[in-house]
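Much of what follows relies on a compact textual record of a protein's fold. The record below shows the convention in full:
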Amino acid sequence: MGRMGRDEFVASRKMPLVVVLDNIRSLHNVGSVFRTSDAFRVEKVILCGITATPPSAEIHKTALGAEDVVEWQYYPDTMSAVEELRSKGYGVFAIEQVQGSIALQNFAAVEGKHYAVVLGNEVKGVQQQVVDACDGAIEIPQFGTKHSLNVSVTTGMVIWEFARILGWVK
């Protein structure tokens, strides 16, 4: 199927997108984020707070080895990660339903810029102080009775849209 090997993946050009997980409880969700990040060659996954890190059998169960090839980093608190990303020139956006958020389909990326998206805890979402520290917020419009999606599903949708916006998908 023309899939990359480990060394080829590690050396390959990455999409200029970092995924930041803010206190994610489910190791299966973390694994799923790694797997999706591998599929789209995301630059890095940042794991914060109570978010578990590899190696972990539960993460591996859904990551299927993606945790071994996708670059990742751990921060004890999400604010430190956001501050460092912003200091390096990343556009940092919380994926959250808040006043003034941009609908995902209306987000306009700047060519050549690197981005980071912060996804929050399965119950509490992205911490308010983290939302406030970001450059903005992006939300996925929803039309049913529920107003939230599973964090791994949300991550997949956001990565796909960034891949499209940034020209990785034609």
Observations:
- Residues 66 and 168 are 20 Å apart (CA to CA).
- The two ends are 20 Å apart (CA to CA).
